[in-house]
Write the structure tokens for this entry.
Amino acid sequence: MDHLLRTLLAFGVLLTALPLPAAHIIGGEITYQCLGWTNGDPATNSRTYRFSMYIYRDCQGGGALFDSAPGAPYQASVTIYLEGQSNPVFNFTLGQPTITYVDPNPGNPCVLVPANVCVEQGKYSFPPVDLPVSDKSYFIVYQRCCRNNTITNIVNPGGSGASYFMELTPAAQAVCNNSPTYNGFPPVVLCANEPFEFDHSASDPEGDQLVYEFCAPFLGGGLNFNNPYAFDGVAPNPDAPPPYNPVTFVAPYYSALDPLGINADININVNTGLITGVPQNQGQFVVGVCVKEYRNGQLLSKVFRDFQFNVTTCDPTVVADIREDAMINGSEFLLTRCGDTRINFVNQSYQQAYIDQYRWVFDLGGRDTVINSWNAVVNFPGVGEYDGRLYLNPGTECGDTARIVVRIFPDITAEYSYDYDTCIAGPVSFRDLSAGAAPINNWSWAFGDGQGSSNQHAEYIYREPGFRQVSLRVTDVNGCRDSITKEIEYFPVPALLIISPSAFTGCAPGTIFFDNLSTPINEDYDILWDFGDGGTASDISPEYTFAREGTFSIGLSVVSPIGCQTDTVFSNLISIEPSPVADFSYSPQALDNFNPEVQFTDKSSGASKWYWDFEGVAYATGQNPHYTFRDTGLQEVRLVVTHPSGCRDTTVQQIDVVPKVTYFLPNAFTPNDDSANDVFLGKGYLRGVTAFEMSIWNRWGEEIFRSEDPMVGWNGRKNNTGSLLPAGVYYCLVRYTGPRGEATELRGVATLVQ
């Protein structure tokens, strides 16, 4: 039932989430009464009619109010046309409607309709209207936009309005006929996949023959909000003249004759108006029904009704339910007990607000036990199978019954014993001692460390010591089960002490990680290592450094928390060989790009072989090599020496080869174009120099030349152009930044000789 509530709640939202001026009309029709000759005088050849209009709206979703209702945006306008004419005979505004609530689902008391599904009927009573008797039909018309935009079976539902009209035929005018009126409004909510029937019959004052059929609803109005009273406006005034276009169904699945879809098998009885069918699809569906009135075989009137079905998933209001162990074939509630004959039955039936009566009935061996409380406690005679029932609202339409099966089996008891050597590690033997009247066919052991077994009796070797919670769960052929848990104190010492490495030969100093592979063992054990050189450790797996050469035996002792002890000595396990000590010096100590050659002197001890690595690009194996560095900067020199035992040592030094710069200025030049000393230009080694600049100044402080290229000198002319400057002394300033960022400044004179 909760599903129905959620579905209908969401459905209610769909019905109402639309703009105010539209999406509120869900049905309507127009009927009439003939009151006789106008003023009671046949000579007038005019009859007086009282028309009634019934409009149905969704009153929950915020759509527009009934037209002409207080606060409504528009007044209800009705227009009367004579057949074949486009000018109205009458156009008038209706007064406030009489509004009544419509039960949205009066035909199914077992379906719960939530409060937010709301339908109202607005009845409009026309003022008496005098119409001359005519050989043509009169059409009484009311048009309004719009339908719900969530309608399933028509095209563009949100833009489709409705035309409600009545045709007053010449035959009806001639005999002062009264139209039939429908006896009730169809249910708003239908249940998907459930048969339904609705008596859509009408009553006729004169007892004329009535014939029923499905017919197409008609369009009217539109979404013109700028001019709402136009024919395509939301509330046309005057209403448009006939003929009217039918709505466009979503073909081929939907049509006027199959408004709920071709698989719904919906039908209307032509004589009784009874509508039957089994709706398959959920959604909102526009439906049109017409009742034709005949007298002596002549058609007098045809009353159109346009309404909306809402199809959703429904659950029954009342459902019998109990707390069960399992379901049998999806229809019987099974409760199973092992040795326990007293059972508490928990009633989980819903919707409880709609449950007025409840009764439990159990067959306890030829006699019925009846309990009238919401929950029930029953003492069963013993082992066996028993039937029961829970009846809700017995004898009513909205009742339900839960069928109950109770199976009581013999009891079962889990038990086991265990045995193991508490001091020396080995397997623990577990023996099943469980008992029960029925055969036990399933055992499940959990050894407390994530491992288990399905054997009846089990053996297990623990890799880690500790307190273990060991559980045994047993199940018999009836499905009865029991379990037991016991704590085992497992702290033996290892049956065999194992360490890694099992042998080692290395160079002094030798650092070794001793991995204790013995099991079971943990931090609760007392551990003592003896490394044979006076050193000891108490870690389970220590790391130890042997500083001197020699052969060493390793001792290991283990004591468990309960006092069990084991020890062993691994004889001559470690062999530490002597190692050389690498060292060297070099000269000269000060090196630069003009003096890059170095003599290396070995100062190692215990070495019999030498391997020199210069900058990673050159190598030597002599004891005292020399080497010329090919570049400046910090150069790495690595020396690897080897002892006669094969042990090695390495040392690395960084040698700085300083990048030097030289630059010298002349003091005079003769710019006479004889190709000898024509340009004032410095000379030197400038590799790595940046930010170079040379400037020439006269004695009055005027700069007459500047160059940022050390290869471009001064030719004796201002800015190296024009005429030669006068002979004399000029001043020269040179600045540059050396390879390692050092700032350098040189000052001198440039004597121009002519």
